[in-house]
Every structure is written in C-alpha cells, then in structure tokens.
TrEMBL record:
It comes from Hapsidospora chrysogenum (strain ATCC 11550 / CBS 779.69 / DSM 880 / IAM 14645 / JCM 23072 / IMI 49137) (Acremonium chrysogenum). InterPro entries: AB_hydrolase_fold, DUF829_TMEM53. Keywords: Membrane, Transmembrane. This is Transmembrane protein-like protein. The keyword Translocase does not apply. The keyword Transmembrane applies. Pfam families: DUF829. Coiled coil: none annotated. It comes from the Eukaryota.
Length: 291
C-alpha cells in the first residue's frame, strides 16, 4: 500500500529568510513561540532542535515547519552548529547562553512540581554537530545546579548520530560543502587535535567523549525515551557506531528504539521517507510502540 505523505506544514519562509518567523536570540540560537502555548503532556512544552554542522537555514526550516504541524502549541528552540563552532570555539558558549537560560527557566519552574515522570522537552539532535551543541549545553547547565537536575525530563531523537572518531568520516563531515583548498587544513587540524589530545594528554577523541556523555547516568535518569534514526548509506557516521551506542544506552537504563533506513544517507531520512520519519517522531513523543 502506498504510504501517505506527511501533512503539509504551514508557510515558514519569509522575505528575510526561511527562519525569519523565529526570534533571533544569538547568532546560533532562535526561538519560535506559538500564539497558544502547550498545556499538559500531549505536546512538548519545548522542542529543542540541535542542527548538524553548517546546516543551511532552508534545510533546518523544513524540520521546524513539520514540528509545527505535529505540535502546533509547542515552543521551538533552535540551536545551530555553524562553521565557527568548530574553527573558533572560544565564543561558542556566549552564543549558546540564551538556550541555556531557557532550559534553566524550565528546570526552575519544575523544581517544586511533580510531573510523575512525564517529559516536557523533545530533543531532536542531528549528527555530531548537534551532539556537540548538546554537550556544551549540558556543561553549562551543570555549572549551575540550583535548579536541581542537569536537564529537563525529556525524550531524545538522534538523527544520524552519534558517530565515533574515524579520521576520514570526520574529515568528510567537516569539509562537506567547503572549498577543496580547505581539505588539507582540516587534515592538519585533525592531526594537531589527535597529537595533543590523544598522544600527549591520552584523552579520547571529542566525538567519543561526547557520545559517552549522552549515556551518563544523571542524564539517562531524566530521559523517558530515546529514538535512533540512522542509515546504512551514511558516509559520515557509521551505522554500526549508532547501533553500538544504542546498545550502551539500553544498558544504562534508557528506553531505546532503533529505526534503520536501508541505504539512508546522512541527515536525509526525512527526505527519503517523510511519512515514516515523522510517524516515528510522533510515536517517540507519545510513547507508542514502533511498528
């Protein structure tokens, strides 16, 4: 039977750009606030979208728009991972501060409330760029524990992530869409990073540390469900890394669901099979069994 196409989202593109309907809080953070806020647990109070590295606004806007269809009363907080987050990291925390403040406000509001374990936030994380943003936000929230927990109770969706450190795959992901002359510079940066971090300091590579942090017991205790969406045709994130991480997440006590897209490319699963993709997103939030 032919699959239905997902419902068409409301118009999201304005003259100023595809995300102009969102309020810009910093160069990397934007917020959409509906006229009628979410009430109860049928819709997330907040949807946190953590986009992939150097994602174009037109591509991000399609995900934002479809979330508006599924959850029309939910606020949407977008955190992007532009080029400067990788090449000029010192200023990243300042750019992410508005997002951290919104999450802190949720934590403070919930501190004295009993939600019986019901999640209030839907985290939609894309690729290792989104994982990098999530890691930074968690670090910022941990620095101020007066709100009680490290993160609001939530459901997490991992699209094309996490991927462990593989030299060529990381190089391919970072260099994607950049001029060819940048390629040697990226190789040099990877070499310096490996020499200092891996050889001198004997530390795991950043993607490996960040992936391990997602399964930290303090975060796992606040996560109601986790959905992994991944493809066997992904040339930037190895699907076997995703499955390994899902197994470790389940061992950490997280309710895990895995959905493979045969031949699926990097962050392209919604485009390849939109009906299935968004049905899974909705089921993940609702807690329905996956077909």
């Amino acid at each position: 039977m032919a699959s239905k196409q997902p419902q068409q989202p409301p118009p999201a593109f304005g003259r100023e750009g595809p995300l102009s309907f969102m309020r810009t809080l910093s160069p990397s953070v934007s917020l959409y606030e509906p006229d009628t806020p979410a009430d109860g647990t049928s819709s997330p109070r907040l949807i946190l979208i953590l986009s992939w590295f150097a994602a174009r606004e037109a591509h991000i806007a399609k995900y934002v728009a479809q979330h508006r269809v599924l959850f029309p009363t939910s606020r949407i907080l977008l955190v992007r991972c532009p080029l400067n987050h990788v090449f000029f990291p010192p200023g990243v925390r300042r750019q992410l501060l508005p997002a951290a403040q919104i999450l802190k406000a949720l934590l403070l509001a919930d501190r004295d409330k009993n939600h019986d374990g019901a999640p209030g936030v839907l985290v939609h994380m894309f690729s290792n760029g989104g994982m990098n943003s999530m890691t930074l936000l968690l670090a910022m929230l941990r620095e101020d524990r007066k709100h009680g927990h490290v993160f609001p109770r939530h459901v997490m969706i991992c699209d094309s992530c996490p991927g462990y450190f593989h030299w060529q795959r990381i190089h391919r992901a970072v260099s994607h869409g950049l001029p060819s002359w940048v390629s040697p510079l990226i190789h040099l940066g990877l070499a310096i990073n490996w020499f200092i971090g891996g050889f001198l300091l004997r530390r795991d590579a950043p993607p490996d540390r960040q992936a391990r942090g997602l399964n930290d017991k303090t975060l796992a205790a606040l996560q109601t469900r986790r959905l992994y969406l991944y493809g066997t045709g992904d040339d930037m994130v190895d699907w076997r890394d995703v499955e390994d991480h899902a197994t470790r997440a389940a061992d950490a006590g997280i309710d895990v669901r895995r959905e493979m897209f045969p031949g699926g490319k990097h962050v392209s699963h919604a485009r390849a099979d939109g009906e299935r993709y968004w049905r899974l997103v909705k089921q993940a939030w609702d807690g329905d069994a996956m077909d």
